[in-house]
Amino acid sequence: MRDRLVVLYRGNRPPATALIERLADTVYATEEELPYLLPGADVLLAWVTSTPAIREAWPDDPEKAPRWVHAASAGVDSF
């Protein structure tokens, strides 16, 4: 079974995502969609990091939280 990857984006989707789409079941989420798509994901790729959406959407149940979070920026203070 392939991992489920949620990509958080704002505006345009990240470029060159064809490879990750071949490696994982990839879904794209806006900040508004994140609370519905994040629970149960294996990985979160945060293309947008300056947002409270991640904290607000984070599942209360640790079993439903992603095992890996990757930020597309150097700063993760907003996480």
Characterization of this structure:
By secondary structure, this protein is α/β, with parallel strands linked by helices. Helix content is 19%, strand content 23%. The protein has helices at residues 18-23, 34-37, 53-57, and strands at residues 4-8, 25-29, 43-46, 68-71. The mean pLDDT is 91.
Q: Please, how many helices?
A: 3
The biggest beta sheet reads: 4 strands, parallel
In order across it, which strands form the biggest sheet? 2-1-3-4
Helix content: 10-25%
User: Could you tell me the number of beta strands?
Assistant: 4
What is the global morphology?
globular
State the distance separating the first and last CA atoms.
Answer: 29 Å
Question: Can you give keywords for this protein?
Answer:
79 residues; alpha/beta; 4-stranded parallel sheet; 3 helices; globular
Can you lay out the helices and strands and say which pair or pack?
Layout: E1 4-8, H1 18-23, E2 25-29, H2 34-37, E3 43-46, H3 53-57, E4 68-71
Parallel strand pairs: 1-2, 1-3, 3-4
Sum this structure up briefly:
The longest helix is centred in the N-terminal third of the chain and has 6 residues. It is built from three helices and four strands. The model has no long low-confidence stretch (mean pLDDT 91).
